[in-house]
Amino acid sequence: EPEVTQTPSHQVTQMGQEVILRCVPISNHLYFYWYRQILGQKVEFLVSFYNNEISEKSEIFDDQFSVERPDGSNFTLKIRSTKLEDSAMYFCASKRERLQETQYFGPGTRLLVL
Amino acid sequence: GDSVTQMEGPVTLSEEAFLTINCTYTATGYPSLFWYVQYPGEGLQLLLKATKADDKGSNKGFEATYRKETTSFHLEKGSVQVSDSAVYFCALSDQDNNDMRFGAGTRLTVKP
């Protein structure tokens, strides 16, 4: 069964450094998402992406964040200058079409900012 | 905006006990409702879903019924196992938002 994959599974970085989190959505999916889960807290929506542009973003998704689909398979989340409070689990998700209810989640990347 | 309120945890049960995790929602439209499960060290896995009122989602012995009159989607299982120990998230999505709104999660621990 096809699944969403994410790399790396864990990343440790110094405050102020740039990180890129990578996701490979399910191949025939068209809608892509990033979510964040700070340890012990709820899963929060960051951004949705369709047709090579952002369709929606939350208040969390400020100018430090960007997303890109550099080729036909990868979907990346970049944090330009990480802060301590960016430490969290980041989940990528995808779905085939807008009216499809279910989003399929990857296993997550655990980011630790020191 | 749309939101999900979920029973506070943690919940600790003995094996074979009955489980209920409460979930209520607020939505302006007609959302689809979901339960996701997160096992230790893993990502979010879809457990079950319901897309309209009175639908019942079920999987692995878990059930939840979409109750529009009470705006609820409570998760139940008749007899839990140690392997059910995980964090359970209630969530909703609708066509207007195009994103999922999650509850805070409920940590379930099942003891032998």
Could you provide a short overview of the structure?
The complex is a heterodimer of chains A (114) and B (112). By secondary structure, chain A is an all-beta fold.
Q: Would you kindly provide a written description of the structure presented here, covering whatever features stand out?
A:
The complex is a heterodimer of chains A (114) and B (112). Chain A is mainly β and 114 residues long. In chain A, 0% of the residues lie in helices and 50% in strands. Chain A contains no helices and eleven strands. In chain A, the strands form two sheets. In chain A, strands 2, 4, 5, 6, 9, 10 and 11 form a seven-stranded mixed beta sheet that branches. A four-stranded antiparallel beta sheet of chain A has the order 1-3-8-7, with no helix packed on it. In chain A, β7 and β8 form a beta hairpin. Chain B is mostly beta strands and 112 residues long. Chain B has strands at 3-6, 11-14, 19-21, 23-26, 32-38, 44-50, 56-59, 62-65, 75-77, 86-93, 100-102, 106-111. In chain B, the strands form three sheets. In chain B, strands 2, 5, 6, 10, 11 and 12 form a six-stranded mixed beta sheet that branches. The model of chain B has no long low-confidence stretch (mean pLDDT 92). The interface between A and B is medium-sized, with 25 and 23 residues.
Number of contiguous helices of chain B: 0
User: How many E strands of chain A?
Assistant: 11
Low-confidence stretches of chain B: none
Class from helix and strand fractions of chain B: mainly beta
Give the helix proportion of chain A (percent range): under 10%
Radius of gyration of chain A: 13 Å
The helix content of chain B is under 10%
Quaternary structure type: heterodimer
Number of strands of chain B: 12
Mean pLDDT of chain A: 92
Structural class of chain A, by secondary structure, is mainly beta
- Roughly how many Å apart are the termini of chain A? 37 Å
Shape of chain A: globular
